[in-house]
Amino acid sequence: MDELPVRLIACAGAALLLSACGGGTPRPAVTGEVRPDVVARARGAAERIAQASAREPDRAYARLGELAGDHGRRITGSAALDGAIAWAAQRMRDDGLDDVRLQPVKVPHWVRGKEHARILRPVDRPLALLALGGSVGTHGTLRAPIAAFNDLDALRASTARLDGTIAFVNHRMPPYDEATGDPGYRQGVQARLHAATEAAKRGARAVLIRSVTAVSLGVPHAGALAYEGGVRKIPAAALSIEDADLLWGLAQRGPVDVELYLGARTLPDAPSANVIGELRGRELPNEIVLLGAHIDSWDVGPGASDDGAGCVAVMEALRLLRETGLATRRTVRGVLFTSEEYLLAGARAYFEQYGREHHVAAFETDYGMGAPDAIGVGSEDGVRAMAPLLPIFARFGIRRFLPHGYGADVAPIVKAGATAFDLEPAARHYFDIHHTAADTLDRIRPEDLRQNAAAIALLAYVLAER
């Protein structure tokens, strides 16, 4: 995908969502050269934002502690997510935002249940695993031989029947590419998405995959799968990469038998909500600059990086604009989307209700909260247009603009005509903890969160003033 860099594929279901929502009628976006007067005002705005941010440097981190600590494991359908949504709305009201509201959304309600697995032959030892989001359960304990495949391509190329077996797909995610910043996620995630369907077509009873990460300390990674319509659904789970290596090595030497139990099940859709708050524009209130993040997480960790910190950074950016009195020409709207991790119900509901409104720009932060590094500005033309502003953004650690922008939740709004923007912090270790119990508060530096939030505030100001 030339138009979207590999490192930005944060949600593999986004393309399906775009197709489902349709493109709408393209509308004028925030494009073209940044006028000298806007550059001058941005310089003054950055000074005011920096001063306001420095007055309470730990405010955003304290809020993230509330979100991740009090409302962790915010999977759709859970009481934790309901609590987080109510908390976020109240904090937006505390900050004096305009028209704070909850947009009702029906979300999928998948429940993990109890789960375990172990090798029975040629050794007896437990396996560290997590059922993949949306997986069906095993309806009892399965005991079966392993049919091992080195990657998804090998499974797809196989003509062998897998009846009576548990397929194991040892599909590796490439290591982080320092030269390009590519984490290898687009390649690594393919087995998580498609191995269950491919194995089921060949008669397998269940499938195990290698976790989608290149680095691990024995921790399996969660994440959604994508069953293909018309194909029998089979149970699916991810192993830690250490146990995947063990299982692969044993399978190369002889028969391997495994025991697997997954208590996963899907309940009726549950009520949830997108959290919306805004700063009304002074001249063009019906033109919207959208700042997005997602408030749900998986059920195995507090989701501090994915995407609690993104939510807090958006909230803090809006607070900084309000506190500094930087009333913008256009409306700046913050949206904390529900159900990004699983089926994008929040994004779909937002587009259905608000997609006809005039969104001129759509920004999302959903790539962790490492040290400030880059902002995606949509295109090469965007990089050239924004270039005069780079020295101003450098105050908050932003060292470059990149010619792309992406966010699964704002993708339908972008397709309808808004210009895409995103935050791209340093992400060398993001996928090490992605969708795991290790996605905890201590992985984020307070200063990184503070600086990124200030950069988002400045970006929102510029886009709303251009």
Briefly summarize what is shown.
The chain is α/β, with parallel strands linked by helices and 466 residues long. It is built from 15 helices and 16 strands.
The strand count comes to 16
Q: What is the spatial order of strands in the main beta sheet?
A: 1-10-12-11-13-16-14-15
Task: Note the beta-strand portion.
Answer: 15-25%
Major β-sheet profile? 8 strands, mixed
Distance between the termini: 30 Å
Give a description of the structure.
With 466 residues, this protein is an alpha/beta fold. The protein has two domains: 7-109 and 268-465, 3-Layer(aba) Sandwich (Aminopeptidase); 113-263, Glucose Oxidase, domain 1, CATH 3.50.30.30. Helix content is 35%, strand content 23%. The chain has helices spanning 14-21, 36-55, 59-70, 79-94, 152-157, 185-188, 190-201, 241-253, 304-324, 345-354, 380-386, 390-393, 411-415, 430-433, 446-465, and strands at residues 98-111, 115-121, 125-126, 129-131, 142-149, 166-169, 206-210, 236-239, 257-262, 265-279, 284-294, 330-337, 358-364, 374-376, 400-402, 419-424. An eight-stranded mixed beta sheet has the order 1-10-12-11-13-16-14-15. Strand 11, helix 9 and strand 12 form a beta-alpha-beta unit. Helix 2 crosses helix 9 (304-324) and helix 9 (304-324) crosses helix 15. The radius of gyration is 23 Å and the shape is elongated. It starts with 13 loop residues before the first helix and ends with a helix.
